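Lecture 7, part B: from sequences to assemblies.

Below are the input chains for today's worked example.
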Amino acid sequence: MATLAPAAQRATGPWREPLRRLRRNRSAWTGGGILLFLTAVALTAPLVAPFDPTQPLIGLEDVKKRASPCIHWLGCPADQPQHLMGTDGNVRDLFSRVLYGARLSLVIGLSTVSFAIVLGTALGLVAGYIGGWPDVVIMRFMDVLLAFPSLLLAIAIVTVLGPGLINALIAIGIVSIPVYARVIRASVLSTKEMDFVAASRALGASHIRLMLSRILPNALTPLVVQGTLGIATAILDAAALSFLGLGAQHPTPEWGLMVGQEYKNIFNAPHLTFFPGFALILTVLSFNLLGDGLRDALDPRLAGRGSTLRT
Amino acid sequence: MIQYVVRRVLVSIPVFLGILFITFALARLIPGDPCRAALGERATDRVCDAFIERFGLNKPIPVQFAIYLRDVARGDLGDSLRQGRPVTQILVERLPVTIELALTAMLFATTVGVPLGIISARRRNSAADVATMIGANLGVSTPVFVLGLLLEFLFAVLLKDTFLWLPPSGRLDSGVLVISLAEAWHLESWTGLPAAVLEFFSRLYLLNGLLTGNSKLFLDTLRHLILPAIAVGTIPLAIIARMTRSSMLEVLHLDYIRAARAKGVPMRGVLFRHGLRNALLPVATVIGLSLGGLLSGAVLTETVFNLAGIGRTLFESITARDYTVVQAFTLAVAIIYVMVNLLVDLVYVFLDPRIRLK
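Predicted structure of the full complex, as structure tokens:
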């Protein structure tokens, strides 16, 4: 073993350099900062929100439906009830709904991507490690899934499963499997012929052990990057399904659904589209920035490449 | 070259069979009764039996699949369960709307994205570069429907009564006449496939306006297309700008660029004659891959802007359980998708003669 990489000879460990790069990466900082803020919003929503996000205020106070924002501090008369982002078509406080929406969006992003990563990794590992006909069958099936625009396939799957948030998440999860399967398979193919794997095999390591503790760790970097960017896509797709009425159902405070229910009123109540819309943009932006930063830091070869190709 | 094309098409066949199978299976898996979805809740059992008989829905699923394959091979996509007319006719009506939208959006994304990427790469870390990259990040992070609605609000509400006002929905103002190509060229006697093809092109209003010299039709269509095309084209635009920038930066570090500079070729010449041609390779791939996003985005854009294109039709047919329309439209979308990817591969070979046609 005369040709150890220089990085491995240093006593400082393999993570020092990437971490240093990550610390200096502006887009990772910005993305991480926004994400931290959103997480704080999600966690403290019950404390901060002035109203119940699902409870119409009819009869509780004197406020009209689709009322424009009323902020006392900005000159809204003090005798009117304060609603920072106005009220929606069911006379609910939009600000409270947008706050609670943060919880949902983060959970949506993380859960669908975890689902897709677990299945995609399993499929990619098997395809890449075993090769032969399982590889052909699995990857051809992935090709077929990729032949459909992701949102259309998700719509079709949701229709089969029935509309609803959970089913929408399953659909988006299924649709994103091929990306991870491909990423993992490519890494597996490049690592499985390496000497350290052959050495392990010679020492009698089982196939499962080789796959999980020798090959998989080497494929983690692209997976982490792809996963972070994938969360952004998943949140976008989930919002799109809810917008079309196939995802979260009334009265769930989901941003896509909030836009979907009120977009026809854009001419007289634009705030009902703007606030949830901007919340969505901010959330997706944070994951995109963080993903870009991670990629630049963890995989300098790819630095500066474009974002995820699949939208 | 021809051999390569043929082999690429042959390789796509298993994928096509898979697509056919999945569209067929998905359509059957959609829960609910297609008869009552099409004819209404109060359709009697006798009516429904006749309906199911007529569309062959009582046959075993494998037999239905075989019949479906045979019909597709013959170019017969069946009748819509809901509208009772041939699906091909619906395709001919709706497909042009989306194609026109997608091509305009792609044109917008490329003509704006590539120059932005070049400027960014040329003046790395300048204000223009930073602004472009921030804009690109915002672009890929904005949901298509939110962007569409923001544009609608900006151009149809805030800029109302100015010359920048743009219509918020539809394809044409009422009162704008569309003369079909068959009528304009006195080809009404055509029937069958040629007539359908002619009808298809007639419904590409921009093309129709150009061919028949109908400037009113052309301009009105264009005015209606601007907002949806920006909405659906922004994500590809952002991706193309980033891709052009990074691949340009990569190329500009190579030795042959330095050699050209040393030889005294001015920067502009190096940039366009030497750099761009190589830098555009990955961009071509991205443009092809963006098409899936465009078609996905089309469902949302067509909803927001009230356009009867394939995205909207597909969505409505899925929720209405119109099996035949769902199958035909997903098939059409997948075929377009696979064809575009083939086209991209061929463009690749054209742009880079080093790629040997293995």
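Note for the exam: Chain B touches chain A through 58 residues (CB under 8 Å). Keep this in mind when comparing with the next example.
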